[in-house]
Amino acid sequence: MKRNICRQLGWIALSVALATDAGAIIGGTQDSGHPAVALMLDTMTGIECSGSLIAPQVLLTAAECIAGDSDASHYTVLGGATAFAAPDWSVGVSSVVVNPAYDFMTFSNDVGVLLLASAPPVSPFPWLATDPGGAYFPGIHFTAVGYGVSNAQSESGDGVRRMVGLTISIADASTFRIDATGGKSPCIGDQGGPALEVVNQVETVIGTFAYGDQACAQFAVYERTDANATFIAAYAPEPGAATSGGVASALLAWRARRRPCSS
Predict the structure, then answer these.
(1) Could you tell me the pTM of the whole model?
(2) Which of 9, 122, 198, 207 is buried most, with the most CB atoms less than 10 Å from its CB?
(3) 86 SS3 class
(4) What is the tens place of the pLDDT at every residue in 104-126?
(5) 92 Cβ contact list (under 8 Å, min separation 6)
């Protein structure tokens, strides 16, 4: 059983999505360049989601993926381009933590972390704790990565890491969304997977996939990391924040360099 991304009557419908052939990360390609994106499997329930390593032993994912099972022994985290068929690594989980502010009725603060029993042999992503004004502007491009199904109708083809370039269409204080009508979107099993934006030449996690429409063909919504920074920072402090202003300062300088000169 895999997490469906439907938002109906305030709860996650576990019925099969009605897409005819909704590719995992619809419109994307198989990915070999993001080893810090991992597949999270609850071996008790069969729930599969995606996540990103943001500290040596901290996997950031969606709260909806872990809120129903707090037993860490039920979880396994797998890495690699084909995590099911040939994982590059596999680690257990020592603790499951859901953001206390998560509301399953409204999907607000849909963020959680898995504390891993050991550190995988990959380097973590930095994540954005404070938006200096620009990371979530409509029109900003980012990369979505995840292990979702390749066919939403049959819920098959999961376990392969894929990526696609997307564009923010709308943002508010806590979320941002993309328009999926062009044939590019995350889908079932990609929940918790990162939105990666290049900040000062470094790919940085700015959000996590939360939900979308039933057919993965209209829209997709991401949680902003800065809106959940208090929770996330308790487990993975923003890299460099204490000494150099961290990713937020780098982003501000990067935006300034991109700003057109005024006459």
Answers:
(1) 0.84
(2) 207
(3) coil
(4) 999 899 999 999 999 999 999 99
(5) 72, 73, 75, 76, 77, 116, 117, 118
